[in-house]
C-alpha cells in the first residue's frame, strides 16, 4: 500500500450551493472506488472551477481498510448544545501559514483562544514544537482527520485521563538516532508519567517522501505502509494512541533552504506527515501523530546559526518527538456510531460553538461548518498560499466573521459566547428598517 496526493480540477457550481454534497459525489465518480481518500482541500476557487488536492491510499488489499468510512460522510447536527463554549482552532499543515506554519509557533495562539472558551479543540500542527508542547489545560489534542470527522458529525470525542501510547520508530542505519527516540520516550515516562514501556522498530521501514504540489503546498508520498499496519495489527488492543518517528526523504538542500530563507519556504516536512497520520487515524480510529527523524549525522549537525524564532524549537532538539508523546498522552478517544444517541460525556458536533481558521482555507472542516451552521472566524493576518474568497460561499447571515488578527478573533469569540452580535459593538451601527 502507498499514499499519495492527486491534483484534480472540478467544475464550479452556481453560487457554490450544496458544495459539500457536490464535491462528495464528484470525487467518488473520479476515484471509482479504487482509491481511499484521506485528505481533501480546495487550493483555489476560480470563476468556473475548483482546484483541489486529494490525499489517497492506493493498492489496498486488507478488507478492514477497504471498508474504512469515507471522509465525505456527513451527518447534519439535529441540535446545538449551548451549555459550554467550545472552539475548534485549525491551522492546516503545509500551506505556509505565517503563524503556525513552522514549529509549534501557534502555541501562543492556542493559549490565547483557550482563555476565552471552555474547551479548545486543536491539532498537532498548532502545538507540536519538537521538545515543546504548550497545549492548554482545557485543550484537546486531536489529529486533523479526526477534527474533520467531528465537524462532519460522524464521530464524537471522549476526554481521557491517560492513554497507552504505542511508540514506533523506523529502523535506522545509525544507532545514534534510534537511541535518541528511546531516550525521548524514557524522558516522557520519567517526567510526564507516560504509559509507554517499549518502542517498536519498523523493519523494513515505512518510506516517507517530501514533495510540493503545483499550488506550492507541501505534500508527499508514503510507501511500504504495511510495515506499520502489520505492527498495529499485531499489538491491537494494547494501545490507545500511536506515536511514530521516521525519516523523511528529501533533497539535502531542503534542510538548509528552509531555515536560511527564514519562512519564505514552506515547511517541507508537514505535508507528508499530515497525509500519513490522516491515513492511520482513519484506518484504526486512534489518535496518531508523527515526528521526523534525521537521516544522517551530517543533517543533524548542520551549522545553521541563529534561525527565525518560529523555527528555533527544531534547532534545539535531536529527536523532535517529545511534543508528540505529550500530546498523545491525553488525546481524546474516538467514539463512533453516535448517529442516533450520543452517550454522556461525549463531545460531538452539537457541542462545537465556532471554528477559527486562517483566511482563505477551504477543507472539509470549513465545508462542514458551512453546512452545520457553525460560526467561522477567518484570520487575515495568518497569511498562506490558499487562493479562496471565503465570503463567496453561501453562509447564513452572521455566520462568517473575517477579522484582522487573533486578538480580534478572541473578541468575536467573546461576543458569540455572550450572545452579543459582534457588529453591535462596532460603529457605525446600521439603521433598523421596516419591510
Explain the overall architecture.
With 435 residues, this protein is α/β, with parallel strands linked by helices. The protein folds into two domains: 2-61, Defensin A-like (2-Layer Sandwich), CATH 3.30.30; 62-435, no CATH class. The protein has 14 helices and 18 strands. It has helices at 19-31, 63-66, 107-114, 124-127, 144-152, 175-192, 226-234, 252-260, 270-284, 297-300, 312-315, 322-329, 364-372, 406-418, and strands at residues 2-11, 36-45, 49-58, 86-89, 119-122, 139-141, 156-158, 165-170, 199-202, 207-212, 218-223, 241-249, 288-293, 333-335, 352-358, 362-363, 376-379, 400-403. The strands form three sheets. Strands 1, 2, 3, 8, 9, 10, 11, 12, 13 and 16 form a ten-stranded mixed β-sheet that branches. Strands 6-5-4-15-17-18 form a six-stranded parallel β-sheet, with helices on both faces. A two-stranded antiparallel ribbon has the order 7-14. The longest helix is centred in the middle third of the chain and has 18 residues, at 175-192. It is globular and about 75 Å long.
